[in-house]
Write a structure and sequence with these properties.
Largest sheet: 4 strands, mixed
Structural class: mainly alpha
Helix content: over 70%
Distance between the termini: 63 Å
CATH superfamily of the largest domain: Metalloproteases ("zincins"), catalytic domain
Number of strands: 4
Number of domains: 3
CATH class of the largest domain: Alpha Beta
Number of helices: 28
CATH topology of the largest domain: Zincin-like
Shape: elongated
CATH architecture of the largest domain: 2-Layer Sandwich
Length: 553
């Protein structure tokens, strides 16, 4: 479920950042109908959560003592929560593109000079709506799994887990705002060297992979695993297998009854092994050892590094999409809002195809590889199978999953994992091949770096259009009142992007400020010749012509 909410937040961010609000130098004005927008935003924010709540209450009334039926009921409630999540994200897209939520937020928070920070405020209705749909099934989850969580604890944990995938976007936005509030020389430098923003993106990705364990430690209530038999077993296994990590931590779920283990961290100095309190309380020492050995398998086979390379592979794929597919949409000549919507939709389709189908296919392979490693390193296949069955029972997970569901899971179902272990123990070559590397990290890294390099070199003008660079430089000069420098840059933008009406509109504004009315009228006319629908240019032109006593024939 956490992964689903993360995907929903990413979808919201993509649609949000694809929508560009108007500014003084933008040719397209956006208006907001407050009487319509505010009530509808409230409806899309709160109604899905209320409907989820009523469905949850109905499910509670139907609860029986039959454990298998309880599991089915809990899984159905999660599916309903997912469907309501789709309603939430659809409503958010409607808020952004039809109700003009970003314009509403810009007007309400105009006192905040940090533009990117204002943009992130738009995510508040989406976050609230997702949290409400999660809280709606809280009582059902608590009663089925007999947990002692309260709503406050449940809400706090879900909020933290939702904010975690937003951290890269928040970091990038803050860096962008800091650059935007730097001296003009710094701003011009970053605009003239646009590749630096890609360097910032890559740096944030690297930091997230390196520092993610520190964030996880703070999101969860953790403490170091105390001395004892379990600690001794884990340390002995790590020493035997040459596995290095910083510490083994206990995640106190505060009565959440979540039995699980995990590892996080790319480098040994920042790598942690996590074990929940329910795992330590409800499982035997041998079972815990095999579960931790599975996590050691991820370390031994360098799965975290493979995930990093895979993520960079998506970056290369997105660059290709950006320079090849998205311009086709822009050339359709449709309304800018429609262009932004379809661009965001195409971006998300590719994103989901890559990370849900391809990434999760690879993830299931890695899980099998780690399962085999756990069995080989401990020599306890039956114990590990017992641990998997107990994990399924404690966490109220079905042992089998429908065939289509298996295609989008990060882990194979327990049934398939048990079947795989049996096949490996019987010497099945198809199972034993997982002892060898199944992902060539070195070759993949070279291919990704080569692809990125070629894309940046061959498509440099498409990635960093000179017209847009000059336009942004002109915009910054205009903001600082450096009119002559701004005119120079906008003129270069108009020459390098002859089909762009924005540069001519900006030149018209600046010439009017200088009192050169003939040039201003000429530039507005050029803007309208390129784009007759440029409302702001037409309004400015009519005012100047009326003042000069000139009438458009």
């Amino acid at each position: 479920m956490i992964q689903q909410t993360a995907l929903m937040l990413i979808a919201g961010l993509v649609f949000l950042f694809s929508f560009t609000t108007g500014s003084e130098l933008s040719p397209q004005p956006y208006t907001v109908n407050l009487a319509l927008s505010i009530p509808l935003i409230l409806v899309f924010t709160f109604v899905p959560g209320l409907l989820s709540y009523f469905l949850g209450r109905r499910a509670i009334k139907r609860l029986t003592d039959d454990r298998s039926r309880q599991i089915i009921q809990l899984q159905l409630s999660k599916r309903y929560a997912f469907l309501f999540g789709l309603v939430v994200i659809t409503g958010f897209v409607f808020e952004v593109f039809y109700l003009k939520l970003p314009v509403l937020v810009d007007n309400a928070f105009s006192f905040l000079s940090f533009e990117n920070t204002r943009t992130l405020i738009n995510m508040v209705p989406l976050v609230i709506a997702i949290l409400l749909t999660r809280l709606a099934i809280f009582e059902l989850d608590r009663q089925v799994r007999n947990t002692s969580w309260n709503r406050r604890r449940f809400f706090s944990l879900n909020l933290k887990l939702m904010l975690f995938p937003l951290l890269p976007f928040i970091a990038y936005s803050l860096i962008g705002d800091l650059i935007a509030h730097s001296p003009i020389s710094v701003r011009i430098f970053f605009i003239s060297q646009p590749y630096l923003y890609w360097v910032i993106i890559l740096s944030i990705i690297a930091v997230m992979y390196l520092k993610a364990p520190s964030f996880v430690r703070r999101i969860w209530q953790t403490h170091s695993l105390p001395s004892g038999e379990i600690r001794d077993r884990i340390d002995a296994l790590a020493k035997k297998e040459n596995i290095r990590y910083r510490d083994a931590l206990v995640w106190n779920t505060a009565g959440g009854k979540i039995a699980n283990a995990g590892m996080a961290g790319l480098l040994p100095g920042s790598r942690y092994i996590f074990l929940t309190d329910a795992l330590l309380n409800d499982f035997t020492v041998d079972e815990i050892e095999t579960v931790v050995a599975h996590e050691f398998g991820h370390i031994k086979h360098k799965h975290m590094l493979a995930y990093l390379v895979f993520s960079l592979g998506y970056l290369a794929f997105y660059v290709f999409l950006y320079v090849r597919a998205l311009p086709i949409i822009e050339r359709l000549g449709a309304n800018p809002i429609y262009i932004a919507f379809f661009s965001a939709a195409l971006t998300l389709m590719v994103f989901y195809a890559y990370f849900i189908f391809i990434f999760r296919f690879l993830s299931r392979k890695f899980e099998k590889q780690s399962d085999l490693y756990a069995v080989d390193s401990t020599g306890k296949p039956e114990t590990f199978k017992s641990a998997l069955l107990r994990l399924s029972a404690v966490n109220y997970m079905p042992r089998r999953a429908p065939r289509l569901t298996e295609l989008v899971r990060t882990h194979p179902s327990v049934f398939l994992r048990l079947e795989f272990i049996d096949a490996a123990m019987q010497g099945n070559p198809r199972a034993l091949k997982y002892r060898r590397p199944i992902f060539n990290i070195g070759l993949a890294s070279i291919l990704v770096l080569l692809a990125l390099s070629l894309l940046f070199v061959v498509n440099s003008k498409a990635l960093f259009p000179p017209g847009e660079i000059h336009y942004e430089m002109g915009r910054e000069y205009a903001i600082d009142g450096m009119i002559d420098e701004a005119i120079s840059e906008f003129s270069k933008s108009a020459r390098t992007s002859p089909q762009s009406d924005g540069a001519h509109y900006a030149l018209g504004i600046l010439y009017a400020e200088k009192g050169v009315m003939e040039r201003a009228i000429s530039e507005f006319e050029k803007a309208l010749k390129i784009n007759p629908k440029n409302v702001k240019a037409r309004e400015k032109l009519e005012k100047l012509q009326a003042a000069a006593g000139v009438h458009d024939e």
